Amino acid sequence: MMKYTFTLVVVLLVSSRLLAQAQAGGMVIENGKFDSNKGWFNHIVGNGKVEIVTGQLIVSGPNKDDDDAVPNTTPSTVYAYQDIEVGRTGTLTFKLLSYASLGDTGAGDYPVFILDKEVLKLYSNGFVENYGGAGRHINNDLATGNTITYMINLKPGKYRIGFGVHSADGYYGSGVAVFDDVAFYPEKK
């Protein structure tokens, strides 16, 4: 009896997931809980890092060695990304669990959300640059250890989404951002 019950539960779980994907117009986010590297690709500049550890995405911005007398003045962004297709209008959500700098100050390094080719700043009020964000964005001087949930409305189409850290100089200490729980919720018909 137990063998059949387990099989039924697995079939129901798989069926409900397939139904949710079909309602959203197909699979939208793969591995949004960051249980592994599956579904995510990395864009790494210099010695920046993208890691998936204990179900979280941890991104460290580039940082030249402290003994290097010439800073890297080229702005750069390190991030994890995936390409998605949205079949119906809905809301993309994600969480920034924390952001801090390992030594740098100022507003030159900050956590970002990538939407196609746009590198967008994250605000402590849960808004994203160009999508309601106003005031000061999260940065080295305005770090956060509080979980902040972000929501972006998307129309049907193909998108590249990413999560990372931008550095204005790649020097004086890496910015480190921790992300989790990326999901897409289609509007109800």
Q: What value does the average pLDDT take?
A: 81
Which range best describes the helical content: under 10%, 10-25%, 25-40%, 40-55%, 55-70% or over 70%? 10-25%
> Cα distance, first to last residue?
39 Å
Structural category is: mainly beta
Say what oligomer this is. single chain
Q: Give the strand tally.
A: 10
Note the beta-strand portion: 35-45%
Given the C-alpha coordinates, what overall shape results?
globular
Largest sheet: 5 strands, antiparallel
Strands ordered across the widest β-sheet:
1-4-9-6-7
Gyration radius from CA atoms, angstroms: 18 Å
* Secondary-structure element pattern, one letter each: HEEEEEEEEEE
Runs in which pLDDT lies below 50 for 5 or more consecutive residues are: 1-26
The helix tally amounts to 1
What does this structure look like?
This protein has 1 helix and 10 strands, in the order H-E-E-E-E-E-E-E-E-E-E. The protein is mostly beta strands and 189 residues long. The chain has a 5-stranded antiparallel sheet, with no helix packed on it. The longest helix has 22 residues. The termini are far apart. The N terminus is likely disordered.
Topology:
Elements: H1 2-23, E1 41-43, E2 49-53, E3 56-60, E4 76-86, E5 90-101, E6 109-115, E7 118-121, E8 148-154, E9 157-167, E10 175-186
Antiparallel strand pairs: 1-4, 2-3, 3-10, 4-9, 5-8, 5-10, 6-7, 6-9
Which tags fit this structure?
single chain, 189 residues, mainly beta, 5-stranded antiparallel beta sheet, 1 helix, 10 strands, disordered N terminus
